[in-house]
Amino acid sequence: MRILLVEDDERVAAGVTAALTAAGFVVDHARDGDTAWFQGETENYAAAILDLGLPGLDGLSVLRKWRTAGVRLPVLILTARGDWSERVEGIDAGADDYLPKPFRVEELLARLRALVRRAAGQATAVLVNGQLTLDTRRMTVSVDGAPVHLAPQEYRLVNYLMQHAGRVISQLELTEQLYAQDFERDSNAVEVLVGRVRRKLGSNLIQTRRGFGYLIETDN
């Protein structure tokens, strides 16, 4: 899934980007508030990690502009400021969670996964649908209890389809969620990726709705 990281501290941004990438996310990095506001309003992200102290527009202003424009992406505020009144202000402005610096990467990942799950209507970190089980913490996939090794991009595809099981996901949406903004996107990339995953999971688990997209059907 594609995450917007808004952070002007290059050292922090590099560490968070590495952790998110290792955890199976695709990361776009914005270094100032004006860029963040534009990207959040025009691109499709699963969630945003938003620092408050930014060049240009500050983080709270970015958040308010997103919400005023109807941008609903989950937002985790990440900041060195620890005043409780500012936390309240951030939540009231439309943030979904708040994590002060310094922080543990493990907690950041846990909170981010929770935000993404809630936005998709999922309650737990382990997603089970018929034969297919996906553990978002361990980044593992199994079919009928047998583990299946997936490459990182293959895992991202299954993760996104499982998070939205029962909904047809267009090729465009999958492209936006699986590839970074600066990636040279091949129009056939998703089709090829789905084919590889089907060979590993079985051809019946990912369904095609021609002209519409792909889905993993729910088991109820």
UniProtKB/TrEMBL annotation:
Single GO MF annotation: transcription cis-regulatory region binding
An annotated GO cellular component: cytosol
DNA-binding region positions on the chain: 124-218
Record GO biological process: regulation of DNA-templated transcription
Domain Response regulatory: 2-116
Residues modified as 4-aspartylphosphate: D51
Transmembrane segments: none
Keywords: DNA-binding, Phosphoprotein, Transcription, Transcription regulation, Two-component regulatory system
Domain OmpR/PhoB-type residues, every copy: 124-218
Domain of life: Bacteria
A Pfam family assignment: Response_reg
Protein name: DNA-binding response regulator
Species whose genome carries this gene: Chromatium okenii
